[in-house]
Amino acid sequence: MRNLTPENITEVFASYFGKDTDPRVREVLVALARNLHDFAREVRLTHDEWRKGLDFLEWAGRITGPERNEFVLLSDVLGLSSLVDMMHSVPGATSSSVLGPFHVSNPPPLPLGGDLKGDWEGEVVLVEGHVRDMEGNPVPGAKIDIWQTAPNGKYSSQDPQMDIHEFHALLTADENGWYGFTTLRPVPYTVPDDGPVGEILRAAGRHPWRPSHLHMIVEADGFRTLVTEIFPEDDPYLDEDTVFGVREDLVMRYEPQPAGTFPAEGFALSGKVDGPWSKVEFDLILAPADVERR
Ligand code: BEZ
Ligand code: FE
After folding, report:
1. Is 208 touching ligand 1 by the criterion CB < 6 Å?
2. From the CA of 187, how far away is ligand 2's center (Å)?
3. Which of 159, 163, 146 is nearest to 189 (CA)?
4. Model pTM above 0.90
5. Is the CB of residue 134 less than 8 Å from the CB of residue 92?
6. CATH of region 74-286
7. Ligand 1 centroid to 142 CA: how many Å?
8. Is the shortest distance between the CB of 150 and ligand 1 below 6 Å?
9. What is the residue with the minimal CA distance to atom 7 of ligand 1?
């Protein structure tokens, strides 16, 4: 085609596909080109702006490696990761939320009632709940992979002073689907903003903060794996998470408990908590594995 115009280029793009192209590949690429072309037409993109965009992607590529993925972060701060999550969430099951870059593989198994706090100082938080299916039945033996920041706002992989497995654990729910452990409150922190994504945040007058949260991946045979996070209702950044991860059903509450009331047995810290502590109750509802995905 040689009679290209700003108006017909999208149609011409669609006509260049081979006959045997996978229909889904064609659908996605045609829609991508249509939206990109519409975007360029809508803002009347200039050569300078187009070049800046390509330089941005080149910078993101340069700093991306096994330890840091700027493209994932870009998708997160643009709301794309959360949009994809929300479009595939199953009503009635716990919402999924961003995985983030700080999960470590092979977290150490922790017995039920175990402790993540270790030698760190602070008020003990007891987190417990049940893993259930969408009919309310328990899911015995569900695996719950948990990770969070230390009180210094860092994940273990960000702090050379920390053991890589600190504040990471793998729990196995009991025959009633119950899980429980003790820890300290995670704290709000900033996403990495010393690269190109930070430039976008600053250009947009946005801050890089995430509300404090506890990450979880819940796996059980016959169920869709749930990647999620839970957030306290009183976090100052709850309604302005820079990666759009908060959902109504993922908001929890720290229930304050008076001194002297910590369970006398069943927890690694039983008999060791004298002061006030707090409790979080959170049930995790899993969708069946064969639930419609698109
Ligand atoms: C996190 O929650 O760990 C996270 C999520 C998205 C971007 C950066 C961090
Ligand atoms: Fe996080």
Report:
1. no
2. 10
3. 159
4. yes
5. yes
6. 2.60.130.10
7. 24
8. no
9. 100
